[in-house]
Amino acid sequence: MRWLVAILALLVVLSLIGYFRIEGGVMSPGQTVLDSTLLWVKNATGSAIAAIAALLLLLRAIQNERVETIVPPVAALLAGLALVRPDWPTTLGLAAVATGLLLREAVAGRAPREDQELD
Asked: Which domain, by its residues, includes 84?
């Protein structure tokens, strides 16, 4: 519950920053302050998610982690990029990774893993 409150507080702070930043700046014709603020918050959130996921991927690649631990940050990276720039290749990549994760869990989730048998 604390995480939810923290995320909501962060989104409120980002909205206020975006509102005051755009209120004094230049907007596109026909664009309201609320539209500009929401666009700014969406881009800031997507950039933060993508940057954190990219750093996690870099750290896990440096540590020679297994593929199972590297794939989930790829989904977060693609989701952050889809927030920043919603074009079809990013969304298609996110859908492919999510589908692969779901299929892997459906197929291999019920079978006992070798790592658990060794412990």
From this structure: 2-111
Using DSSP, state whether 63 is helix, strand or coil: coil
Residue 72 placed within a domain: yes
Q: Provide the 8-state DSSP code for 64.
A: T
Closest CA relative to residue 14, chosen from 35, 39, 41 = 41
**How big, in percent rounded to 5, are the helix, strand and coil portions of the chain?**
80, 0, 20
Q: Is residue 36 part of a domain?
A: yes
pLDDT tens digits, residue range 43-99?
Answer: 888 888 889 988 988 888 888 887 777 778 888 888 888 888 878 787 888 888 878
Query: Is residue 35 included in any domain, yes or no?
Result: yes
* Sole residue written with tokens 């609320």: 34
